[in-house]
Specification:
globular
Length: 416
């Protein structure tokens, strides 16, 4: 379908066309690109080719060093840009295909590029929307009868995270230090976390903009969801367990959050939509939407210790396990008049299914450290060690093609 050759197992098929921010050694300027196969199409080079009624007046957004300006243009502009890109990259269109000079300037091999955060993230919210995960964690700490708090089935629970420590895939993170209370009969101690964990998550970027005091009705929520990324919301469980009462996560979470660099547009994911989960009790009217907005995205987590020859897969899950949808999350977030801005990031919370192999955290996989997680070559873990590299991958599987996200990877450095 495209004149660019794309392997059937590539994350970046013609059906995908995700957006990202990249630079190259010969041109260190951050610029907007679209991934297809092993190539990046530099939109700053071809901005004049966007001639649709909305984008033609705003071609300068493709000269900017982040996606914020493009995200701000809104839903109709995003759809229009995607139609233009699919036309320009199609096998039947000669504009790029036959212009050797333009192609040489417009395309960059991914191996020659450095990826950066896709947006200037003003605010970051982390939800807690997997019923299986919330039930598992609640069972560990409160018992099976009180696993879910009374509000959990009534609204998408969330908290405001720290945007300044969101980093792009490949950025190493240092083991955090803080207060812990491993012995409940003794005072707390200070030191490096001993229960450093992963959290398999996905997140969406907000587009468009609202004013303070406005809310986003659920029937309009999809017009403010620009696209999705993979996320590892690293968590220091021992620090978090001591600090979180009564106001929730703080130092146990804000030391680092990793996202994948490519933002997959929602239009690329719509072919993989599935019916929403049955929600009982029925949500309040402002959270109800009959249209499906749950997505079949295969997710994998692998771990490679510094002495391991190969990475071991420790989790196989799926985004369809979520209980609350992204539309419900965004509508609830703004129902009180909270304004959102282009580039705001909203995360799913840890994604777990009912099968133990689908548990999206080491807290669950090791059941709070009571059993080991078996890796290759006799290696085991309960929580992360220094030098461990964790990689999250994910994709939707079409007929002979994939819509994927690329890797979301980070390595743990020793505490200072």
């Amino acid at each position: 379908m495209s004149f660019i050759k794309v392997d059937a197992n590539s994350d970046f098929s013609f059906h995908n066309l995700p957006y990202g921010i990249f630079s190259t050694p010969d041109n260190p300027r951050h610029r907007i690109g679209v991934a297809i196969g092993d190539q990046i199409l530099d939109l700053s080079v071809i901005k004049s080719l966007f001639q649709g009624p909305v984008i033609c007046k705003h071609q300068d957004v493709f000269d900017q060093p982040t996606l914020n300006g493009f995200m701000a243009l809104g839903y109709e502009a995003w759809k229009e840009a995607r139609v233009t890109l699919q036309l320009l990259l199609s096998a039947s269109e000669s504009t790029l295909r036959d212009d050797v000079s333009l192609r040489s300037r417009a395309f960059v091999h991914q191996s020659a590029a450095t990826m950066h955060l896709p947006a200037d993230i003003g605010d970051y919210t982390d939800f807690y929307s997997s019923r299986d995960h919330a039930t598992n964690v609640g069972t560990m700490f409160r018992g099976k009868e009180n696993a879910l708090m009374p509000n959990w089935l009534r609204l998408p629970v969330g908290y405001h995270g720290r945007a300044s420590s969101v980093v792009v895939s490949g950025t190493p993170l240092r083991r955090p230090s803080g207060q812990m209370r491993p012995d409940q009969t003794k005072p707390p101690v200070f030191g490096p976390s001993k229960q450093l964990d992963i959290e398999l998550e996905m997140a969406f970027f907000v587009g468009g903009e609202t004013r303070l005091g406005e809310s986003i009705p659920i029937k309009e929520a999809h017009k403010h969801i620009f696209g999705m990324v993979l996320m590892n919301d690293w968590s220091a469980r021992d620090i978090q367990a001591w600090e979180y009462v009564p106001l929730g996560p703080f130092l146990g979470k804000n030391f680092g959050t990793t996202i994948s660099p490519w933002v997959v547009p929602m239009e690329a994911l719509l072919p993989f939509v599935e019916p929403n989960p049955i929600q009982d009790p029925e949500p309040l009217p402002y959270l109800q939407h009959p249209d499906p907005y749950t997505f079949n995205i295969n997710l994998f987590v692998s771990l490679k210790g510094q002495d391991m020859a190969d990475a071991a897969t420790i989790c196989k899950s799926n985004f369809k396990h979520m209980y609350w949808t992204m539309k419900q999350q965004l509508s609830h977030h703004t129902v009180n008049g909270c304004n959102v801005r282009p580039g705001d990031l909203m995360a799913s919370g840890t994604i777990s299914g009912s099968d133990p192999e689908s548990f999206g955290s080491m807290l669950e996989l090791s059941w709070r450290g009571s059993k080991t997680i078996d890796l290759a070559g006799g290696e085991t873990r309960t929580f992360l060690r220094d030098g461990d590299t964790v990689t999250i991958t994910g994709y939707c599987q079409g007929s002979g093609y994939r819509v994927g996200f690329g890797p979301c990877m980070g390595t743990i450095l020793p505490a200072l």
